[in-house]
Write a structure and sequence with these properties.
Rossmann fold; five-stranded mixed beta barrel; globular; binds S-adenosyl-L-homocysteine
Length: about 250
């Protein structure tokens, strides 16, 4: 049976996933807790990614090497970069770049040395499936979040976007920095701290990978506002609903 790895960037997201695994068993490796179980008839291993590129890369490597996942799906939150990418929208990555990788002048800016590339693609099929699930969930946003939460966070007709997500070991919380990132990487829809590392690990092992991020902030001077409440009330509910919808849509293994 195929094994699906589910990485959550946030504690709240993982807790919501674990509540859906009736038979989960905990296995500790490398200071992390991996949860093995079944969700809607699929074998899954769920784990907290931890924050930042190195921590997330280690988590992904253990999922692949130790738990032999055949597919890896990553959820979390991100700062919106593209115009029209608003708080409460969802971004499904079609590729990742490390915005803080810079070995110039030896290599072009952003290129990961010895890979000959800056960009690591996600799996097109898996990403299309997640985008489809995301659209189904956002079409019923009020049902998943409650009308009160929609109004409180001023979420109006949230949308799913697909495109480039950029990662680096920095929480981007000033307009000056996000403007500089926009100039350097104009295609970026969102910025976060882990995805590009996991995409690179999955590239190394040829494991299909997809990532979905709820936009929690606009990576500007207001980026810290209500971050934790947003994760609890909005992002972790979206992540759970999107994963669950994706598994429902997915044919049995
Ligand atoms: N309070 C959290 C820590 C959050 S760190 C905890 O205790 O777990 C920030 C997380 O949000 C990272 O996973 C990062 O990928 C994502 N993120 C959201 N907005 C971001 C932004 N503007 N810049 C960088 N990362 C962002």
């Amino acid at each position: 049976m195929a094994v699906i790895g589910i990485m959550s960037a946030m504690h709240e997201e993982l807790a919501a996933v674990l509540a859906c695994l009736p038979d989960e068993q905990r296995v500790a490796v490398a200071g992390r807790e991996f949860w093995l179980g079944h969700w809607q008839g699929h074998a899954v291993v769920a784990v907290l990614s931890r924050i930042g590129k190195v921590a997330a890369a280690t988590t992904a490597t253990v999922l692949i090497e130790r738990f032999h996942v055949d597919t890896l799906v990553f959820t979390g939150v991100a700062g919106g970069m593209g115009s029209g990418v608003r708080v409460g929208d969802v971004v499904v990555a079609n590729g990742f770049v490390q915005h803080d990788m810079d070995a110039s002048p030896l290599f072009p800016r952003h290129e990961v040395p010895l890979y000959g590339r800056a960009r690591f693609e996600t799996d097109a099929n898996l990403s299309a499936q997640l985008a489809e699930a995301g659209q189904q969930v956002l079409a019923q946003a009020a049902q998943h979040l409650g009308a009160g939460t929609l109004a409180e966070f001023q979420l109006d007709s949230p949308r799913v976007h697909q495109g480039l997500v950029i990662s680096g070991d920095r929480f981007v919380a000033t307009s000056t920095e996000s403007q500089a990132l926009r100039l350097a990487l104009p295609d970026a829809l969102a910025v976060e701290m882990e995805g590009a590392a996991v995409a690179q690990v999955c590239h190394d092992y040829a494991v299909p990978f997809a990532a979905v991020r709820t936009i929690s902030d606009r990576a500007d001077d207001a980026a810290h506002t209500d971050f934790n409440r947003f994760i609890r009330e909005v992002a972790s509910r979206y992540s759970l609903a999107i994963l669950s919808q994706w598994l429902t849509n997915r044919p049995p293994d």
